[in-house]
């Protein structure tokens, strides 16, 4: 059972009932720094931020980046200010990750650093409050509050609406926590606040939680069951981002392509979920609702000049209609993240992944046939419970067979609460995990370099992000496959305005002729500034011949 810890002596029964009700049901966001119907144990004034400055620090996945924007949107409505200067902050909130032990250790180390900052706080200033948000708050709750007395508040991934109340209680010197998981919280009515004025892209959360219950994964226990945002609210957010001039959105979810919007009653029919061939689920097949193909279709129609990506999907949820849509729409990136985790069918079964190596490889072939030139990326875990040397070599062979363009590889880290924790033995020695991981990384880099070199001599459409981090004379951006492309910052022709010479700016689409490639990036020289719609005409072999 999840818990909510709080110290509020002298509560009456009606106060306690209000506390439970507000903790377990989504609350409407206030439209201004005013709070309606405060809990009986707090005044309206206590719930207001009173222009106290909040410093937000984000760790982990893209979902945490989006969660940071949601949390800030809620706090901003309550009258808080945001600062990028740690020294002037009145509130420090860490948005945390629990996917591996190393991620949690990073937070423990950071708390140790912040302890000194809190201790040295001048008495003339309001006391510094420190909070832990996200998955680590959900997973370790009591341990954090008991081990680190300097932590004032905890808020799990489904409790960000409660931040003003938790901060108000922390102001009175109490430790406060809300780590209750929700069956319906999607923050559909909370518009995330984009904090970077120079940003060219944004994340849009479309669903939360995961029902897959892979044996190694902590996500279902820290983020709860799957639930999807209504399509209408997603489209509203994408339209707003388009209006702000952003050129790329990434649809986010722990299992993004299992999206299923049941908010419209007329679409709750008995049509079952269509899975990839040879794949199964760990749960009863779901029926009805507006599915991912419908959402992807609608989002791609908002702005033809806005690129659409999505992550992170599960291989089981790639029906033909999704693949066909990706192939047909110019603004849906021809890039698919396809987490394999292992190349061994035996290990995949132990992981509870719902497919064999053979089914996965068949899906790879089907995707490449359906979307010519598609860029593929994947996740792999080295040293999972019971993994033998033969299992490891099968993963090596899968890396060589598929030749991914990008990859994310990690040594296995057992997590409490997971199926593996209760039923399997973490029996691969640490040094063996590291050695196998290094071997996987080496093979991945070799094959990715080979795969990426096929782009040499071709023109790639690149969305400019800004200056390269390694050279003030170079720009960088990303191609359709989400690979970084670096090119000199020089003048070029603007194909929309013949005769006009321009320099690329963040948010521009430019064509870059690729001259070299590695496992991590591409390099080239810029040809012209263009639009997403017009770019295909300039990538033909005939046009390229005129540029050589």
From TrEMBL:
Q: Where is the MTTase N-terminal domain?
A: 52-172
Protein origin, superkingdom: Eukaryota
Tell me which UniProt keywords the record has, alphabetically. Answer: 4Fe-4S, Iron, Iron-sulfur, Metal-binding, S-adenosyl-L-methionine
Enzyme Commission number(s) from the entry: 2.8.4.3
- GO biological process: one example: regulation of protein metabolic process
Q: What GO molecular function terms would the record report?
A: 4 iron, 4 sulfur cluster binding; metal ion binding; tRNA-2-methylthio-N(6)-dimethylallyladenosine(37) synthase activity
Q: Which GO terms describe its cellular component?
A: cytosol; mitochondrion
The UniProt record lists the TRAM domain at: 453-528
Q: Which residues form the Radical SAM core domain?
A: 196-451
For activity, the cofactor(s) needed are: [4Fe-4S] cluster
Whether S-adenosyl-L-methionine counts among this entry's keywords is yes
Please give the catalytic activity noted in the UniProt record: N(6)-dimethylallyladenosine(37) in tRNA + (sulfur carrier)-SH + AH2 + 2 S-adenosyl-L-methionine = 2-methylsulfanyl-N(6)-dimethylallyladenosine(37) in tRNA + (sulfur carrier)-H + 5'-deoxyadenosine + L-methionine + A + S-adenosyl-L-homocysteine + 2 H(+)
| InterPro entries on file | Elp3/MiaA/NifB-like_rSAM (IPR006638), Methylthiotransferase (IPR005839), Methylthiotransferase_CS (IPR020612), Methylthiotransferase_N (IPR013848), Methylthiotransferase_N_sf (IPR038135), MiaB_methiolase (IPR006463), rSAM (IPR007197), rSAM_horseshoe (IPR023404)
Q: Which NCBIfam families match?
A: miaB-methiolase (TIGR01574), MiaB/RimO family radical SAM methylthiotransferase (TIGR00089)
Give the protein family. Belongs to the methylthiotransferase family. MiaB subfamily.
Name the record gives this protein: Mitochondrial tRNA methylthiotransferase CDK5RAP1
Q: Which organism is it from?
A: Trichechus manatus latirostris (Florida manatee)
Report which gene this protein is encoded by: CDK5RAP1
């Amino acid at each position: 059972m999840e818990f909510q810890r709080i110290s509020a002596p002298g509560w009456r029964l009606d106060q306690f009932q209000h506390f439970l009700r507000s903790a377990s049901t989504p609350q409407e966001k206030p439209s201004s720094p005013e709070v309606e119907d405060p809990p009986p144990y707090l005044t309206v004034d206590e719930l207001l931020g009173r222009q106290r400055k909040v410093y937000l620090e984000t760790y982990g996945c893209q979902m945490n980046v989006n969660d940071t924007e949601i949390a800030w949107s809620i706090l901003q409505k309550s009258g808080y200010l945001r600062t990028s200067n740690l020294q002037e902050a009145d509130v420090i909130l860490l948005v945390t990750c629990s996917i591996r032990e190393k991620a949690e250790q990073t937070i423990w180390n950071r708390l140790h650093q912040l302890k000194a900052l809190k201790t040295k706080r001048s008495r003339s200033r309001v006391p510094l409050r420190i909070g832990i948000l996200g998955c680590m708050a959900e997973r370790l709750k009591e341990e954090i509050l008991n081990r680190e007395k300097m932590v004032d508040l905890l808020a799990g991934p489904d409790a960000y609406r409660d931040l003003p109340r938790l901060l108000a209680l922390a102001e009175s010197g109490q430790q406060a926590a809300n780590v209750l998981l929700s069956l319906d919280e999607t923050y559909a009515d909370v518009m995330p606040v984009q904090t970077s004025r120079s940003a060219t892209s944004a994340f849009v959360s479309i669903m939360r939680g995961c029902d897959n219950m892979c044996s190694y994964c902590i996500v279902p226990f820290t983020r709860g069951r799957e639930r999807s945002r209504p399509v209408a609210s997603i489209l509203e957010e994408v339209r707003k981002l388009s209006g702000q001039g952003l050129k790329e959105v990434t649809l986010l979810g722990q299992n993004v392509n299992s999206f299923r919007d049941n908010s419209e009653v007329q679409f709750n029919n008995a049509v079952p979920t269509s899975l990839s061939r040879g794949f199964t689920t760990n749960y009863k097949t779901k029926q009805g609702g507006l599915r991912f193909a419908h959402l992807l279709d609608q989002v791609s129609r908002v702005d033809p000049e806005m690129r659409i990506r999505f992550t992170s999907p599960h291989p089981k949820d790639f029906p033909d209609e999704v693949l066909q849509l990706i192939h047909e729409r110019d603004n849906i990136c021809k890039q698919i993240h396809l987490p394999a985790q292992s190349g061994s069918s035996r290990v995949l079964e132990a992981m509870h992944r719902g497919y064999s190596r053979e089914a996965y490889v068949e899906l790879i072939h089907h995707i490449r046939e359906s979307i010519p030139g598609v860029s593929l990326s994947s996740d792999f875990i080295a040293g999972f419970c019971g993994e033998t040397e033969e299992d490891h070599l099968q993963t090596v062979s899968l890396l060589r067979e598929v030749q991914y363009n990008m990859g994310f590889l990690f040594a296995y880290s057992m997590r409490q609460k997971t199926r593996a924790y209760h039923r399997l033995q973490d029996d691969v020695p640490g040094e063996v995990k590291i050695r196998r991981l290094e071997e996987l990384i080496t093979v991945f880099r070799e094959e990715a370099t080979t795969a990426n070199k096929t782009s040499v001599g071709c023109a790639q459409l690149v969305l400019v992000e800004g200056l390269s981090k390694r050279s003030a004379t170079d720009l960088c951006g990303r191609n359709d496959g989400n690979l970084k492309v670096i090119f000199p910052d020089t003048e070029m022709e603007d194909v929309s305005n013949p005769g006009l010479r321009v320099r690329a700016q963040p948010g521009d689409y430019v064509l870059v002729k690729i001259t070299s490639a590695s496992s991590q990036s591409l390099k080239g020289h810029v040809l012209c500034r263009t639009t997403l719609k017009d770019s295909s005409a300039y990538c033909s072999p005939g046009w390229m011949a005129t540029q050589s």
